[in-house]
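Forgive a beginner's question, but would it be possible to get a protein, spelled out as residues, together with the matching structure tokens, please?
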Amino acid sequence: MTKTILVFGDSNTFGTPPMLSRAGICARYGKNIRWPMIMQNYLKPEWEIIEEGLPGRTTSLPDPEMGDHMNGQTGLKIALNSHGPIDLLVIMLGTNDSKIQFGIEANQIASGLASLLNIANTPDMQLKHNNFETLIITPPQVKERNALEKIFFKANKKTASLNHFYGQLSEKYEISNINAGDFIETSETDGVHFEPEAHQTLGKLVAEYILNNFK
């Protein structure tokens, strides 16, 4: 019987290429490049992937420029009620929370992620999906480059310490955690998005982790 994975994230889950200008936000890699689809290739036919990536999505913050729907709390509730049953929830968020406009630090970003874990772990939600497990992926460190440098001012230091707090959450909630920054880097072009090679690496890595840790 095929199992289902809901992958919940931002532009790097959606597949946004590195941007030369902010006008490139609508661009998207093809299925042969995006990391959730690379993961699907390694996991099929045992697992089926649902992609839920939204450029600009945060863990828990409405965006005054992009809209209130960037709040991951709203998006996760919709996704979990739109799809199912799922067997595994994979969350990779936190990069957009590090934007200068929000003025929060890494521990506060982790608090936003905790709010998503609380939503996922409600008895009603678990019952709806016949119980599912969760894997959180810490996004790699932002580099503050070129077109996105001003938006992500001071994000380099914040995102460097994210995995410390995400690791604490994984222990507290007894869930799995992968630090993507141990294996891939953001692009030198904009310091936020992934090059195709990073998508390939991440997709294979997460697939292998799932095959070894989730039955």
Q: What stands out?
A: The radius of gyration is 16 Å. The longest helix spans residues 196-213.
